[in-house]
Amino acid sequence: MNFEYSDPQTEKEEFFGGFFHISAFGRIEPGDQEKFRDFLNRTAPPPRTMVYINSSGGDVEAAMGIGRLIRQSWFSTSIGTYLLQPQRQSNLIVPREHTSGRCISSATLMYLGGRLRFYSAGSEFGVHQFSFQNPTAESIYRSQRLSASIATYIAEMGIPAAFLELSAGTSGDQLSLVSEAQLKELGVITGGITEPIWGVEIQQNAMWVRAERDSLWGHGKVILIYAATDGFTFAAFVESMGRENDLMSYPLVEIVVNGEDRRINISDRCIRAPVGIYTTLMSKLSNDEAHVLAHSDSFGIQIRSSAQSGIFLGIAAVSTAGAEEKLQGLYKLGTA
Question: What is the pTM of this model?
Answer without folding.
Answer: 0.85
